[in-house]
Design goal:
about 90 residues, mainly alpha, elongated
Length: about 90
Amino acid sequence: MPEKKNPSLKDPQLYEELREDGASKQKAARISNAAAKRGRSEVGRKGGKAGDYEDWTVAQLKAKAKEIGLKGYSAKKKSELISALRNS
């Protein structure tokens, strides 16, 4: 439980689990409140479909690396870019 009780948290147990897994306070609160409102299984199905990095071109991978602030991406091969993006 958070040190101070937060009345805006609808599912404090889920909030704490998400925080322990490394989620930010805002993200954990958003997910736990959505799960309390719509049900955990409904929240788990929400989200878009992202394509596999293997299907992206090198130019697209470099643009994504630049967008998220990776360093040294311009000299990397496609496999190295994919690895760097997955581990960032």
